[in-house]
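Contributing new records

If you add data, match the layout below exactly. Sequence lines come first and carry their own label; structure lines follow with theirs. Keep one chain per record. Anything else will be rejected by the validation script.
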Amino acid sequence: MFEFYKLFYSIGGKLPKRERHGIYAIADRLCLDITQDFICAALEQKLVKRISLARARIRIETLKRFIRLMRELNIVHEKWYLQTEKELQEISKMTSGWLRYLE
């Protein structure tokens, strides 16, 4: 998730003020919340791990929608969008696998 956040963060300074303080700020907060969920899942006991990972999975799906919306509104370039979407798909798969492992 840290590598994804580096990629995501890299576009922030290039965005106009309106987008940077609007949809990008919401998506940025989601990235940080997902990271926190993963840290909680790594350090907590099994029951809390499931809760944290389930919450992370929902936030990942929400983040995907926001990033897609950013592309549809032409806020970000297609190359950046495709790269972030690919990485988010991988993060989503790993999260689902972690949840299956816990069950």
